[in-house]
Amino acid sequence: MSMPAPGVYIEELEPVLDAVDRRLIVATQEGLPRVPQPYHALAAQIGVSAAEVMARLRRMLETGVIRRIGAVPNHYALGFRANGMTVWNVPDGRVREFGQKIGALDFVSHCYHRPRHLPDWPYNLFAMVHGRDRAEVEAKVARIAELLGEADRGHAVLYSTRILKKTGLRIG
Amino acid sequence: MDAVDRAIVNDLQGGFPISEHPYAEVATRLGLSEDELLRRIDALLENGTLTRFGPMYHAERLGGALTLAAMKIPAADFERVTQIVNAFPEVAHNYAREHEFSMWFVLATETPERIGEVIAEIERATGYRVYNLPKLEEFYVGLRFEV
């Protein structure tokens, strides 16, 4: 067995959330307070010091429990009205190779390997492409098809027509 | 939305500071007063330009689980099924898409086992099959809109 490289001891990186972390997560489910000292406001709410709130948020960012602190725009409101979920059928052995290439494109916001459900659903690679209109999305889809070449064994673009529900993550 | 709002939306998609006066810090780099920044963020949330402002949690790392699920729902039955699916608190997002697979939703549950249970409950309640499409590998997540 080869020695693992330093820093890849996955078990040690598993975040352990205690009761205070949980209270902090619940307190920020609706977002960060919009007051000059939001971390102090959270501290008062959950009964710890502001320094502790900030230290815990930093730790959760480091361990990846928090992806980032920031804003989530409504892409419809921003004028990105054509939202195409592009799905591709590529050879299983090349999913990672193409996933990395497609994910690196600046117009792709998410790229995932997902399972097929044959025969109904033959697609195993998903890439979200956003554009101001469908022509813009189609042009981007053509660029992905070109990149895949003959590894593209079929693809589809699923445009979203309506947001039926959108809520934050519920935990508690 | 004016140029100042656009600068705010672009800036806030990056890392918001963890500090004593984080809004003042952001306001300074945008050339605004803290008060104006706070007022504009409130307005952007209120008018729906922003859907959320705060920490974005990584569900799997909270001990929970996430999956993407799809259903083939005929147009005539779409509203009924939407109501049933949306009533599940585990359904975080739900989108209508132009395809035979017409309903796409994200399930976020506190435990991995709960994903399968919710899928079975949705299938029972709606009478339609739910296709479970969990991510097997993530290549990039950089959802960011320059405006």
In short:
The complex is a heterodimer of chains A (172) and B (147). By secondary structure, chain A is an alpha+beta fold.
Give the proportion of residues in helices of chain B.
25-40%
Low-confidence stretches of chain B: none
Strand order, main sheet of chain B: write it out.
Answer: 3-4-2-5
Percentage of β-strand residues of chain A: 15-25%
Q: Please tell me the total number of domains of chain B.
A: 2
- CATH topology assignment of the largest domain in chain B: Alpha-Beta Plaits
Distance between the termini of chain A: 41 Å
Number of strands of chain A: 5
Number of helices of chain B: 5
Per DSSP, what share of the residues of chain B sits in E-state strands of 2 or more residues? 15-25%
Q: Which two protein chains have the largest interface (Cβ within 8 Å of the partner's Cβ), and how many residues from each?
A: A-B, 74 and 75 residues
Q: Provide the CATH top-level class of the largest domain in chain B.
A: Alpha Beta
- From the alpha carbons, calculate the radius of gyration of chain B and give it in angstroms: 19 Å
Description:
The complex is a heterodimer of chains A (172) and B (147). Chain A is α+β, with helices and mostly antiparallel strands and 172 residues long. Chain A folds into two domains: 14-62, Orthogonal Bundle (Arc Repressor Mutant, subunit A); 82-159, 2-Layer Sandwich (Alpha-Beta Plaits), CATH 3.30.70. Chain A contains six helices and five strands. Chain A has helices spanning 10-13, 19-27, 38-46, 50-62, 95-103, 134-148, and strands spanning 66-73, 82-88, 108-113, 125-131, 155-166. Chain A has a four-stranded antiparallel beta sheet. Chain B has helices at 3-12, 22-30, 34-46, 78-86, 112-126; strands at 50-57, 65-71, 91-97, 103-109, 131-132, 137-141. By secondary structure, chain B is α+β, with helices and mostly antiparallel strands. In chain B, a hairpin with a 5-residue loop joins strand 3 (91-97) and strand 4 (103-109). Chain B folds into two domains: 3-46, no CATH class; 59-132, Alpha-Beta Plaits (2-Layer Sandwich), CATH 3.30.70.3460. In chain B, helix 2 packs across helix 3. Chain B is built from five helices and six strands, in the order H-H-H-E-E-H-E-E-H-E-E. The mean pLDDT of chain B is 92. Chain B is elongated, with a radius of gyration of 19 Å. In chain B, strands 3-4-2-5 form a four-stranded antiparallel beta sheet. The chains are: A alpha+beta (172), B alpha+beta (147). The interface between A and B is large, with 74 and 75 residues. Strand 3 of chain A pairs antiparallel with strand 6 (137-141) of chain B, so a sheet runs across the interface.
